[in-house]
Write a structure and sequence with these properties.
This protein has about 375 residues and is α+β, with helices and mostly antiparallel strands. Helix content is about 30%, strand content about 25%. The strands form 5 sheets. The protein has a 5-stranded antiparallel beta sheet with strand order 3-4-8-6-7. It has a 4-stranded antiparallel beta sheet with strand order 11-12-10-13, with helices on both faces. Strands 15-16-14-17 form a 4-stranded antiparallel beta sheet, with helices on one face.
Length: about 375
Amino acid sequence: MISPTTEQELAEAVAAAPGALRIIGGGTTDIGKPVTGQALSVAGLSGITLYEPGALTLVARAGTPLAEIEAAAAAENQRLAFEPMDYRRLLGTSGEPTIGGVVAANISGPRRVQVGAARDHLLGVRFVDGRGAAIKNGGRVMKNVTGYDLVKLMAGSWGTLGVLSEVAFKVLPRTDVTASVLIKGLSDTDAVRAMSMALGSPFEVSGAAHDPAGPVSMLRIEGFENSVAYRARELQRLLGWAGDISVENDPDAVAARWSGVRDAAAFADRPGDVWRISVKPSDGPAIVARCAADAVLYDWGGGLIWVLVAEGTDLRARIGAFGGHATLVRATRATRAALPVFQPEPAPLAAISAGLRAKFDPRGILNPGLMG
């Protein structure tokens, strides 16, 4: 395994690589088609290089453990507002998630419906492209972008365009109080309707999920104590038609509930393949009905659907054509080799993607085939 400890060493390693490289951060997010190549770990590029709480800005090397960043932010009563998912339990992996891995996969949790995805909080990146050139884009403050917005491009590129060496992002203040408004007994269709009403209301819902196994629908509210209490009451009034509504205030219970939603924890110890479907919320229940799934979880107000199916299931073939995309998150290596892991792109978009990879990785050595 190649283990650089500086950006210069990283650039030299990529430039000298005779063939394919399998990029590794903390080794916790084993998603995508299996990559054959020499392992290159960025775990040695670790440490927070700048933290200015007053400016809500933090800069860290790509291999910095996510836990280290979250602890530093918490000490200043701040947080990563997009609450990145921890894939370890679902995928059965070990190690420590890194901030570079979070950015490379654009990992975002339930609060995405309120504050946006990981890429929306990125201020700047440093990375090494497939030729071994070190590139910087963006900075330490939000600004209008002219030319190529490589910051956004790198988020979600899964290491296929460049190997991240450093990231800069904004943090936000933590909230004082968190509560969950729970609605029991709703059908999937009524749950999506309720979540859409809540998210469209002025009551600043920061999470909206539905577990058909309950069935229980969950709405999260955060802020100052009096504000949370007021908004919880107003949501109960707004959704009075939905029936059995209660408010959960215990901090530990609320935190456990939403970390469970964030990490799709209900699927973790169950056999089978796990897919995530991104779709217009109103289309979700009909698509779920075609999945014939063993378990389902709606997040992002119904815009993200986690689905558990039997091992080896080609879920896209089972669903048929739909307006959205499906990603195979957990499966055996054989299944991931046989099926497209990421939603196949329309021809015009695939041509653009291929052009970008040819530009940034002309030798095709960075995680080749991972997103195929």
